Protein: Alpha N-terminal protein methyltransferase 1
Organism: [Torrubiella] hemipterigena
Amino acid sequence: MERSDRAIASTTQDEHLATKNETANSRMGLKYWESVTSDINGMLGGIPTVPGFGSVSRIDLQGSRTFLARLGVGIKNERKPVAKAVDVGAGIGRITEGLLLHVADSVDVVEPVAKFTDRLKTKKGVCDIFNVGLEDWKATEGAQYDLIWIQWCLGYLSDDEIVDCLKRCKTTLRDDSSLVVIKENLSSGNEKMIDDVDGSVTRRDEDFRKLFTLAGLNLVKTDVQRGFPEIPPKRLLPVRMYALKA
């Protein structure tokens, strides 16, 4: 199960998080996300209402836009848009509307909570909407994507589910220039962390790299998200972006 837009969920590194070597609880995650409001505040776990953290969504989208630009994807300075993208764990479409529809002709949406995607049904540029979890998602037969965007949602999947998902994603890439971009929180310690509110797992950088290799994907670029506010003792977990190719 996945919940992208929203899995930044914890406002601070130590709030609601316990360090354990456990696996994700997707049922717990789905129950949590079905209970939140269908707005940006709900998607980002209440972070925008925390004093000093209201700019998190804007900064996140700008960081993603810059990362894509460095990969040659965009609409300025000889960069090129793509024909087809998919937003995995789309929530209410924060990333679809704020990023992907600016660099892609059309966007498919994967989001298990149907109430979040209601507003996207009439959005120009949005095509297929899949109200299923990432672990169960299969693209329409014959679908080919130039860009698969997966953000803040792999924490709801087990290691095996992530590998299986990425293998399926790999088969839908249009050609050797097509990209899978993953953007996730990273554990700030030496072990994975379990969120006892939504059941998600926060992995380490080395955990992700191992899973990418097992899925047969090649890491072509990676960078950290910069610019998030930090007002001691509150600060967000580290966030890293990975660009992968078949």
Q: What stands out?
A: The chain is about 25% helix and 25% strand. Residues 1-21 have pLDDT under 50 and may be disordered.
